[in-house]
Amino acid sequence: MDHYIDLRLRPDPDFPPSMLMGALYGRLHRALFDQDANDIGVSFPDHKTGVRARTPGDRLRLHGKHQSLTQLMVQPWLNGMRELVETGDILPVPDGVLHRVVRRRQFKTGNDSQVKRYARRHAIDLEEARARFASSSEPRITLPFVSLNSRSSQQRFALFIEHGEPQPTPADGSFNQYGLSQGATIPWF
Fold this sequence. Notes:
Blueprint (H helix, E strand, L loop, with lengths): L2 E7 L7 H19 L5 E3 L15 E6 L1 H8 L11 E3 L3 E2 L5 E8 L6 H11 L3 H10 L9 E5 L6 E8 L21 E4 L1
Antiparallel strand pairs: 1-3, 1-4, 1-5, 2-3, 6-8, 6-9, 7-8
Helix pairs in contact: 3-4
């Protein structure tokens, strides 16, 4: 992880930044999937947390080796979005930076499909299933998220992203096809 590239959304009067970030991140996911890349990580340097403010921000930072980032950026995954995204240069990571794990977090949100499955599985009516989910719901989610379509089921889902605590040393490992990892770090600056 010695280089990075910033992709910043340009303001658009027709689409909110969250929708554009979802489209950009979805395209990145497809590109990483098509390349079978496990050496490119992502971060959202301008992310905000909090129940009312949880947003990934308008900047997506890609981390990796210079060769991996170059190979990704020559692919046509940004076609159709180039006018909406300002693409920076591939730059070396500054010296003396901290490192963070950026991972996916999943929550039991008690959405309608879960309630219906629970009701069927336990042979109870929907109202009782809703009541059980309401009483066991987790605290409010404060992490930023990106709305994506699943490649396999075509269902829309929220991908919650947690930026771990800064640490002084990097941790090696691989990244999934969303650019996230449960243990590998990205440089944080």
